[in-house]
Amino acid sequence: MASISSAGIGSGLDVDSLVSKLMSAEAAPLNNYDNKTAAYQSKLQAYGKVSAAVGSFQAALTSLNSSSTFSALSAASSNKDVLSATTGSGAVPGKYKVNVTQLAQAQSLVSGGKASTSAMIGAGAKTTLTFQFGSVTGGTFGTSGTSLGLGVSASGIPSGSLTINGTAISTNSTTRSARDLADVINDESDVTGVIAKAGTATTAADLFKTFGNVGVAEGGSYTLSVGGVKLASAQEGRSVSADSLDTALASTATKNALAAANITVSGSAADGTLQFLAADGSDISVTEDVTGSVTGGIGKAGADGTEPGEANTGSTVTATAGVTLSSADGSQIVIGGNNPALAGLTAGSNGSYIGAGFSQDGTQNMGTVTLDTKDQSLQGIRDAINKANIGVTATIVSDGSANPYHLVVTSNKTGASSSMKISVGGDGDQAPDPAIAALMGYDPAGAQGLTQTSGAQDTKLTMNGIEVTSKSTTVADAIQGVSLDVSTLGSSTLTVSQDTSTVSDSINAFVKAYNTLNSTIAGLTSYNADTKVGGALQGDSAVRSIQSQLRRQLGASVEGLGGKLTTLGQVGISFQKDGSLAVDSSKLSTAIKNNFSDIGGLFAAMGQASDGNITFDKSTAATKPGEYAVNITKMASQGKVASTKELVGSTRIAANTTWTVTLNQTDPASESKVQNITIPPGSYDNTQLAAVLRAAINGNSTFAGAGDAVEATVDSSGKLTLASSKYGEMSSLTLASVTGTPVSDLFGDATTTKGADVEGTIGGVAATGNGQTLTAAAGSNAEGIQLTIKSGEIGDRGSVTFSQGYAYQLTNLSASFTGKDSILQSKTDGLNVSIKSVAAQRDKFSDRLTAMEARYRAQFTSLDTLLSSMQSTQSYLTQQLAAIAANS
C-alpha cells in the first residue's frame, strides 16, 4: 500500500486544523509571560522617566550650586568696539570712564635679506642663541638725523622734500631750523605715529679759541651778536677783549636777553672754551658786523695773543641741529620725499634703539637654542627656534628682492616687559661664528643685527583719570573683580551693575525643574478615580521615598550661615497644596535687593576663612556645616639656598659659566631633577643678577615641564637667596659649580635648607599638611575642608565657616537617587533581572510547545495513515463482496 506524503491526504483528516487548535489552547500561558514582561517594561520606562526628571532637576541646580552665580554683576560698555568686560568675584557696582590710548603688542625682529633659505651661514661650528626677555630702558626707538645744512637755515626746506610713513610733511621756506622741522613733523604725529625732537644747536668748540682783542680805527665800528642779542660793540678809541666779553655775558641783562632767545652759554672767552647752545634746536647765528678798519675778533688773535690782531672784515657763523625721530609703537619709520637729505634724514626704512638699556624680567624664563651645522641656514635656524619652544615664533618671509628671504622672530607674549635680547655664543669657550652673530645678535643696548619691525608695548588706558597699564589687551583687576578686553583705541563708559536676573532666572529654573519632577512622580504613582487606572508606579515605596526626601530637604533650614537668610520661604519660595513649589516674584526681588550678600550661601556650598592670609579651597559631600577653629603649629617653607656673602656693587659672571642645579629631588632620586644650567655672562647689579639667575634656571625645559621653578631675591644687605617655588617636604634646592664663575663667588658658604609642610588643626583635630595646603581629618565634622595657609604666624588663626545651601544639598541628595547602588538603579536592575527571567521562562515554555506540536503531529499523522489503510481495506472488501454477489 502506498505511503501518505501529507497528513490528511489519505484519510481526509484535517490534521493541521486539529493541531493548530490544540496548540492554541496549549499556548494560552504565553500571554501571561507577555503580560508580565509588558508590566515590567512599563515600570522600567516609568523609572526612566523619574530618573530623567531627577537628572533635569540636578542640571537646574548647577547654576545655583556655583558661588560664581551669586557675583551676579553685569558689565555694559557704551562702546563695544573699544572694549567689553566680564565680572567675577569681588566686583562691585560702579561707573567708569575709560580712555584707551595704546594697545599691547609683541616685539617682532627681522633679519637682513638672504638669497636662499637653505644656504649655509657661517663656517658651521656649533652655535647657541640665548633669548632673554625684559624691558628696554631709557633711550628711544627711531633714527637721528644730521644737522641741517646752512642752505636750509637761509632758505628753508622746500615743500615735498619730506614724507614720513607715507604722509607729506608741510615744510616750506620758513622751515629753517631743527626746531621748525620738529614742529611740522609733530603736526602730523597723530597720522604718522612718529614724534620728532630737535637736537641742541651748539656752536663749534673752538670758535672762540683764538679771540683777538678788537681794535677799531678812526671811523670804524665793531658789533658781536649771538642769535640777534648784542654782546659787545666798539668804536674808535674803544676795544673788546675776551675778558670784557665774559663780563658782558655775566650781566643779568645779557643773560635775560639770551634766555629769551632760548640760548645758553658754557665756557668762557678768556680760556677759549666759549660755546652757545640752543636746546630747542633753534639756529644760532654768531655775527660780527664791521665797518671801517677793525682788527681782532673771532679767530683773529695776534701771534702771541698780545700783538695786534689780524684784520677783521666781519663774519657770520651759524650753528644748526638735526632732529631725532621716535616711533610711538616701535615700528620702522619710512622716510621718503623729493629730498629728505635736506631734513638731515635718509630715505628708506629707519629705526633702532638709541641710547637704550635692557633690564631682564626675572619672571620670564630664558631660552637657549643650539644650532648644529645642519641648522645654520635661515630654514634651519627657524626650525630650531620653533622646536625649542622658548616663547618665540620664527618664520621666513620673502620681499621679492634680489635677496628676498628674511627670518622673522616674534615674541609669543605681548607687553613692554617681553622685549627680546638675543645673545650668540660659540661652542664652550669658543667665540661665536661672526656671520651668525651679525645676523642674529640683538641687544637694545648694543649691536642690533636684527631690525625691529614691531616694538613690545603695554596696553595703556585711563580709568576715571587714573593711568593703567597691562601686558596684554586683557586688563584684569584695574577694577576689582572686572576683566576688560580692549579691542581698539578710543573711549567708552563702563557700567558695572547688579544683574539680579541671573539669580532670579536660576531660582525660577530650579523651581520649574522641581515641579516637573514632582508632577512626574505624582502622575506615575497616583490613581485616577475617573478612569479607574493607576499609574505605572502606583504605591511604589522607592519613588515615594524620593519625593518625601526632597520635600523634607526643601522644608529644612540651612545651617552654618551667618546671614539673615536660612529658609526658602524668606526668598519667596513655598509649597502649594499639590506639593509643587511657587515663587513670589516680589518677595524674591526684595530678598535679592536687600540681602544680596547672603543669598549665595542659601543655595551654594560656601566656605570662608576669617584670616585674610588663609583661603578656603574646597569641601566634599562629607563636610558638615559649622564653624571650625584653625590653629597652625608650623608654617610651610621652601627649599632654599641662602648666601652668607654680601654682594657689593656689580657682580661679574664669566663666560661659559655652568652650574648643576638639583631642584625638588624625589625619593628615589630622579635624574630629571638634576640639570646643568648656563648662566649668561655679563656684569649685573643685584636686581639684574636675581632676574638672570631665576630666568636661566626656570628656562630649562625639563624643569619647566615638571612644574619645577625657583624664586630669586637679594635682601637689603646684599645677600642672595634662591628658593624653590614649591612648598613642603618635596621642596629642595642645591647648587654646584661646573665651569666659569663658581657658586661661592655669589653665595659664599651657602646655607641649604629643605622645605617643610604646614602643620596644624582644623576644628581641634590634627589636619594633614601638604605644602601650604591643610586638609581636615577624615571622620571629623570638618572632613573634606581644604585650606591654603599662604602666610602669617603660628598659633590660633581664627576659624573657617562652612555652610551647605539648598542647591548643594539637593545635588548630593539627587545623586543618591540615580547613582551606583541608588534606589532607582536598584529598582531598574531588579526589573531587568525579572524581564530576563520571564524571557527565559517563556523561551523554555516555547520549547515545550514546539515539542508538543511535533508530538501531536506525529500522532495525528499515524492516525491518518491508519485510517487511510482501513479505508483501502474497506474499499477492497466492498469490491470483493460486490463481485461475489454478482456471480451468485
Summarize it.
The protein is an alpha+beta fold and 888 residues long. 30% of the residues lie in helices and 31% in strands.
Description:
With 888 residues, this protein is of the alpha+beta class. It contains 18 helices and 56 strands. Strand 7 and strand 8 (167-168) form a beta hairpin. Helix 2 packs antiparallel against helix 10 and helix 2 (29-64) packs antiparallel against helix 18 (823-887). The longest helix has 65 residues, at 823-887. The chain is elongated. Residues 1-5 have low confidence and may be disordered.
Largest sheet: 5 strands, antiparallel
Helix-strand makeup class? alpha+beta
List how many beta strands DSSP finds. 56
Shape: elongated
Strand content: 25-35%
Please estimate the helix content: 25-40%
Radius of gyration: 48 Å
Oligomeric organization of the protein chains: single chain
Number of helices: 18
User: What is the straight-line distance between the termini?
Assistant: 30 Å
Reconstruct the topology from this structure.
Elements: H1 15-26, H2 29-64, E1 73-77, E2 83-87, E3 94-102, E4 108-110, E5 127-137, E6 140-144, H3 150-155, E7 163-164, E8 167-168, H4 178-186, H5 189-192, E9 194-198, E10 201-202, E11 211-216, E12 221-226, E13 229-235, E14 239-240, H6 242-250, H7 252-260, E15 264-266, E16 275-278, E17 284-291, E18 294-298, E19 315-319, E20 323-327, E21 333-336, E22 348-350, E23 352-354, E24 357-360, E25 367-371, H8 378-388, E26 392-398, E27 405-411, E28 419-425, H9 434-440, E29 451-454, E30 459-463, E31 466-470, E32 474-479, E33 482-486, E34 490-498, H10 500-525, E35 527-528, E36 533-534, H11 541-555, E37 573-575, E38 581-583, H12 585-594, H13 596-603, E39 605-609, E40 614-618, E41 626-634, E42 640-646, E43 651-653, E44 657-663, E45 674-679, E46 682-684, H14 686-698, H15 701-705, E47 710-714, E48 719-724, E49 733-739, H16 743-747, E50 751-753, E51 759-762, E52 765-766, E53 768-770, E54 773-775, E55 786-789, E56 795-804, H17 806-818, H18 823-887
Helix pairs in contact: 1-18, 2-10, 2-17, 2-18, 11-17
